[in-house]
Amino acid sequence: MARRKPSAKEILTVRFQKAGCQNKSMNHLSTIENQVWETEKAFAASMSDRNFEDFCSFLEEDCIFYGNSGFIKGKAAVSAAWSDFFTGPEAPFSWEPAQVAVRVAEDLALSSGPVYRSSDHKQVAVFNSIWKQVSPGVWRIIFDKGEVYSS
User: Fold this and answer.
1) pLDDT tens digits for the chain (151 residues)?
2) Which domains does the chain have, with CATH numbers?
3) CA-to-CA dists, residue 12 to 6, 78, 102, angstroms
4) How far apart, in whole angstroms, are the C-alpha atoms of residue 83 and residue 81?
5) Is 32 helix (H, G, I), strand (E, B) or coil?
6) 114 vs 122: CA distance, rounded Å
7) CB 134 within 8 A of CB 126
């Protein structure tokens, strides 16, 4: 039996998840959205686990991150720019997905959510990441940009 493809509306609708209610809300995500959600959570865990090698494994070779001094292009440059975030015993910040949207073609996805300062868990930014499915169920980040959060 062929797998039912979600409608364009189902895929393109951004799913909002409330912090602390992720497991309950996960039931509303399609399989492909759940893959991206779990990939984003694993990417964030690489920071909290202080695992730089794991962090780098999520980067596509030609990824682009937007940093304080502009665009950082390529896995090697992004890895070098982010390496200082992994030097101390405590992560300087953390993040978690709050929204996921997947293209109808299921090749690209957007994830977005809050970024917290580790010292007081205050939200300081919002991240927006674009993911590329490089093989079935395997997603790599191709674009990332954070925006300062003002309450």
Assistant:
1) 454 444 333 333 333 333 333 333 455 789 999 999 999 999 999 999 999 999 999 999 999 999 888 999 999 999 999 999 999 999 999 999 999 999 999 999 999 999 999 999 999 999 999 999 999 999 999 999 999 988 7
2) 8-148 (3.10.450.50)
3) 10, 29, 6
4) 6
5) helix
6) 10
7) no
